[in-house]
Write a structure and sequence with these properties.
Elements lengths: L2 E3 L3 H10 L1 H9 L1 H6 L1 E3 L2 H4 L2 H26 L6 H22 L7
Parallel strand pairs: 1-2
Helix pairs in contact: 5-6
Length: about 110
């Protein structure tokens, strides 16, 4: 049976204090005992992290595009630096979205 811990040494220490069977295995053979410890990564189990990030980046891109369309439709005169900043922010958000939504390579 694998022991599940989060991604830290403190969690391994707590698991060792609370699990007598794991303590015995560590006394006999620490290397083999570590092979039975499975590290949980919160990013692998909590999909809401990605959903919130994707939603916020998408809203940022849509908000900037909407703002630029409203600026051009109303013929408002803004400094060209402001439009350049909006373009840079939206380009960065689109790149971040592409990086998050692209399939990750298979680990072997």
């Amino acid at each position: 049976m694998k022991t599940l811990i989060n991604d830290s040494i403190g969690d391994l220490e707590i698991a060792l204090k609370n699990n007598i069977d794991l303590q015995e295995k560590f006394k006999l053979n620490p290397v083999e005992a570590l092979k039975n410890v499975e590290i949980r990564n919160p990013k692998d189990t909590d999909y809401w992290i990605y959903r919130i990030i994707v939603i916020m980046l998408g809203l940022a891109v849509l908000g900037i595009i909407t703002g630029l369309i409203l600026i051009t439709m109303n013929n408002l005169r803004f400094d060209t630096q402001l439009i350049t900043i909006f373009t840079a922010i939206s380009s960065g958000a689109i790149g971040a979205l592409a990086g998050l939504l692209a399939p990750s390579p298979n680990k072997q």
